[in-house]
């Protein structure tokens, strides 16, 4: 693999769509780069239909974590993915001619995301986050109209995971921020609760984005180096006041449950080898390798409980995982996979992160997890390690019923 400088930004160029973006003001704090997240609505074609198959259901786009950055003189919007090793941009349009400092490296790279792929041309340009420069960054600019491209979304990636074995490389964005004294630690906090709210905090955490104790958990090693930690159990609550049913307390090998988290993941992957038990305890049915549920179960407030420690439970409503309802309204199709080939015994994505608050301390090989909430913003810099027994400023918030995101403005074809 060819080396990258600072990080690899994946910018997607399309001749058919463009969405406006606005600069977000970030509060100044010593040793912290605090980036408010913005919501980017689903893009639509001139006929009002979704522009990509990933946007066919409003539920798919409920939990996107996005941030404006500057590439040369161009403002781009990022989608955050802690589980990716390369940094990318969330964009429907990138014009190479808009930046006078963009330099063509004359090379290409094939980028794969699951069973999708896109070939990008490599450039370098100056990049800044929240008005602070991180210097030259290698950009992969991909043309969505190029033959052979198989990418069902107009998105890129802001990767926050280093290449395995290169944790101290300047190619790792957290190391780059540390080297430039922008932050004092290779850590970041991510908190999102409602549409258009939340923040990514490099070098710190926000005590007004969670309730209860911020639980300290060792980072669980796995074969690909993804962010993961042990949890005590996974349970299912049918709703309507019924008691929770325990689904798993250990993996298929009898080991403690390891929960891997990645905000870029749409799916939720329960413990492998438990399909029959999962169906019996939840009432789900398996169709097309996914667990689907009767919609009346969803509407009664069913939820999954992730027991992090004896004192902390993160609850995720079943409604968060709904992909679509059948025309008769009786069956709810979900993003819950019946087969788990992920590197950890349980894998969760943006739905879990929306209902929790997670701090990734890369240097300390530690993760901190709390129940998500939102009562303002109180940013604290991490200089060394996070103190023990940190508690959130917020009162406990029960997961609110999810609401569809704002309607997308009519995107005008170029």
From TrEMBL:
Keyword Disulfide bond set for record: yes
CDD domains: pepsin_like
Disulphide bond pairs: 295-332
One of the GO biological process terms: proteolysis
Keywords: Disulfide bond, Signal
Region (Disordered): 393-414
Top-level lineage group: Eukaryota
GO molecular function: aspartic-type endopeptidase activity
Residue stretches making up the Peptidase A1 domain: 52-370
Gene3D superfamilies: Acid Proteases
Signal peptide interval: 1-18
Family, as annotated: Belongs to the peptidase A1 family.
Protein name: Peptidase A1 domain-containing protein
């Amino acid at each position: 693999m060819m080396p990258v400088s600072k990080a690899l930004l994946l910018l997607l160029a399309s001749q058919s769509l463009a969405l406006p973006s606005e600069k977000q003001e970030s509060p100044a704090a010593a040793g912290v780069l605090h980036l408010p997240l913005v919501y980017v609505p689903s893009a639509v074609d001139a006929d009002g239909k979704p522009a990509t198959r990933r946007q066919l259901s409003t539920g798919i786009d409920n939990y996107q974590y996005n941030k404006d950055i500057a590439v040369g003189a161009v403002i781009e919007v990022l989608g955050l993915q802690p589980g990716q090793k390369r940094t990318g941009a969330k964009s429907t349009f990138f014009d190479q001619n808009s930046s006078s400092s963009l330099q063509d490296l004359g090379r290409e790279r094939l980028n794969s995301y699951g069973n999708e792929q896109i070939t990008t041309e490599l450039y370098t340009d100056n990049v800044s986050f929240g008005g602070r420069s991180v210097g030259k960054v290698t950009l992969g600019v991909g043309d969505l109209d190029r033959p052979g491209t198989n990418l069902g979304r107009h998105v890129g990636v802001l990767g926050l995971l280093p290449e395995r074995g290169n944790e101290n490389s300047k190619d790792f964005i957290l190391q780059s921020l540390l080297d430039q004294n922008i932050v004092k630690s290779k850590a970041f906090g991510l908190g999102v609760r409602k549409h258009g709210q939340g923040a990514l905090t490099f070098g710190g955490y926000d005590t007004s984005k969670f309730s209860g104790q911020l639980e300290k958990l060792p980072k669980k090693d796995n074969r690909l180096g993804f962010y993961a930690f042990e949890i005590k159990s996974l349970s299912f609550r049918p709703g309507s006041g019924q008691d929770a049913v325990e689904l798993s307390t250990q993996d298929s090998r009898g080991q403690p449950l390891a929960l891997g988290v990645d905000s870029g993941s749409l799916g939720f992957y329960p413990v492998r080898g438990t399909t029959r038990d999962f169906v019996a305890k939840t009432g789900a049915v398996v169709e097309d390798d996914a667990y689907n549920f009767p919609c009346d179960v969803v509407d009664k407030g069913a939820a999954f409980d992730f027991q992090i420690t004896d004192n902390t439970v993160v609850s995720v409503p079943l409604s968060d995982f709904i992909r679509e309802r059948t025309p008769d309204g009786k069956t709810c199709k979900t993003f819950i996979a019946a087969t788990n080939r992920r590197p950890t015994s349980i894998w969760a994505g943006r739905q879990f992160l929306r209902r929790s608050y997670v701090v990734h301390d890369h240097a300390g090989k530690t993760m901190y997890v709390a129940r998500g909430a939102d009562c303002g913003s109180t940013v604290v810099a991490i200089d060394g390690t996070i103190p023990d027994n940190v508690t959130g400023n917020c009162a406990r918030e029960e997961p609110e019923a999810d609401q569809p995101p704002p309607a997308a403005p009519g995107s005008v074809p170029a």
